[in-house]
Amino acid sequence: MPGSWGNVYLIKRLLQNKYMDFVWVVLLFVMHTGAYFVTAHVLTGHHPIHVALDDVIPYCKPFIVPYVLWYLYIPLLMLWAWWKDRAVLRRQILTLLVGMLLSYIVFFAYPTVIDFRPEAVGSDVFSWICRIIYRYDTPPVNALPSLHCSETLILYLCTFTVDPFRKQKWIHAAALIMAVLICLSTMFVKQHSALDVATGLAVAVVAYTFVRLLLLKREAARTSQPEKT
To answer: What is the Cα–Cα distance from 20 to 15, expressed in whole angstroms?
Structure first.
């Protein structure tokens, strides 16, 4: 029994270590990558996603810049949260996990693919970046809901709805503008349908609301407990 209590104590201390947050981030990434590989290369019978609005939205290659900046947007906001307030980082991780689970339920139940992506022709830098993205994201599966959009909105909401982050007005404004550009970019570079974007944003709102209510309920239960004398 003493050994068992000692093991519990060691596990508790380990989980409270600030570097343990990075372990959760790595585990989240591994789960994400593994599930994406299965849905992209193992599942068959993907359904094309294409709505009328997609034909109205023009193909605009410069939007590949905010699309690619997504790969910095996510880790930078998480690193900032780790540096400023680890509780916010844990909220980010938990909400990303819920959003990821919701998204992959859809990916497995109804595999989707984009069938209207153009060929990136031209010698300009935007065409060159588009060709790289298209080459490594072929076929363009897991379209609905858009992970680009859901994870962008999740990180924005988890970060800038609490102190001290929402008081950083210039960073807050820049993050909001970048979040909007990232979501728009998915449609303008034809990586996603407008329907993918809408469902991705919906997943983010559902995941954020669920985690927020869960944490509020947990905090209420903690404060309602009588103090020990």
So the answer is: 6
Any domain includes 217:
yes
- What's the CA gap between 229 and 212, in Å, rounded? 31
Which domain range does residue 123 map to?
2-224
Say what the pLDDT of residue 228 is: 54
Q: Per the structure, how many domains does the chain have?
A: 1
Question: 111: which 2 tokens?
Answer: 């595999």
Which residues of the chain register pLDDT less than 50? 1, 4-12, 14-15
**pTM greater than the 0.70 cutoff:** yes
- Contact between 113 and 141 under an 8 Å Cβ cutoff? The reply is yes
C-beta of residue 67 within 8 angstroms of C-beta of residue 182: yes
Residues 181-225 have pLDDT tens digits of 999 999 999 999 999 999 999 999 999 999 999 988 887 777 776
Is residue 185 within 8 Å of residue 61, measured between CB atoms?
Answer: no
Q: Is 229 within a domain?
A: no
What whole-number distance in Å separates Cα of residue 82 and Cα of residue 74? 13
In a domain, 189, yes or no: yes
User: Biggest alpha carbon distance in the chain?
Assistant: 74
Neighbouring CB atoms inside 10 A of 87's CB total: 11
Q: Is 119 in a helix, a strand, or coil?
A: coil
- Residue 44 lies inside a defined structural domain of this protein: yes
User: Contact, 83 vs 89, CB < 8 A?
Assistant: no
Tokens coding 206: 């559902």
DSSP category for residue 59 = -
The answer to whether 120 and 42 have CB atoms below 8 angstroms apart is: no
